[in-house]
Amino acid sequence: MDVRNNPWIMPFVIFLCFSLKPHVSLGADTISANSSLSGDQTVVSAGKVFELGFFKPGNSSNYYIGMWYYRDKVSAQTIVWVANRETPVSDRFSSELRISDGNLALFNESKILIWSTNLSSSSSRSVEAVLGNDGNLVLRDGSNPSLSPLWQSFDFPADTWLPGAKVGLSKINNRNTRLISWKSKDNPAPGLFSLELDPNQSQYLIFWKRSIQYWTSGEWNGQIFSLVPEMRLNYIYNFSYVSNDNESYFTYSMYNSTVISRFVMDDGGQIQQQTWSASTNAWFLFWSQPKTQCEVYAYCGAFGSCNAKSQPFCDCPRGFNPNSTGDWYSEVFSGGM
């Protein structure tokens, strides 16, 4: 067929070029000293389980460096870790994630450093960042990968607890590895709610603003948390508790490694156990605690009224209006009246 004699061919070819734009990837699981990540580029774990790159949450106009399940595993983009939670960028194409001075570092559109692994620099190290199939982003000495990681994202979780990661206390550096909720579905900055290990007992606590405790899991009895009876039905997770001179923590693994599951400290103040359902292409909520939103401390904010039998749960008493109508319609009620 002569393209010159068919005026429909060329526009059709141009349309295909744009509509079938390929996914841009670095083609590896590693960011090395001579590579960087910008725009729509991503790195993908070796087994194509997790992907790392720039993303834009919800209706936000900001971009963040984050990690999500690879699209063949979970069709709905589900963010499990965020690097620059409090310092977004506005232009992902002119921003850059790269190795700099022995660290993994993010530079914004003005080439200003806005996030880093913040390690003491060492020019003698051949540093590289590797994304594992477990969802752990590891900074390591590329000349000797068998050494302990220089830094790992498992030590700095956002709102999600993945299998194999620890949530607990380091007794050496007094660091508390906790889950902290997003501010809202559109903003991954640290929110009001956190899940952390009780420093005195083998139980978890949920705090409001890291100061007011409003929920406890009850102590661990070797199989379940005493105040989470739903765990008796749990055929998905294998929990274990470790306490020694160096650290105390809980971790878990999957009885069936093909099952995709996670724990989330939700922006509504509940800790949730979720499992991906391939048949419905959605996350299935196995259990959540506290059981109702109205049990979450200050869920409706100052002067707000909470009713677990209504939708939405929060309402304004007569004579009051929300402090932020926009937040209210986005189901962020913590601003109150």
From TrEMBL:
It comes from Populus deltoides (Eastern poplar). Keywords: Disulfide bond, Glycoprotein, Signal. The keyword Disulfide bond applies. CDD domains: B_lectin. GO terms for biological process: recognition of pollen. This is Bulb-type lectin domain-containing protein. It comes from the Eukaryota. Residues 28-152 form the Bulb-type lectin domain. Transmembrane segments: none annotated. PANTHER family: BULB-TYPE LECTIN DOMAIN-CONTAINING PROTEIN (PTHR32444), OS01G0958200 PROTEIN (PTHR32444:SF247). Gene3D superfamilies: Bulb-type lectin domain (2.90.10.10).
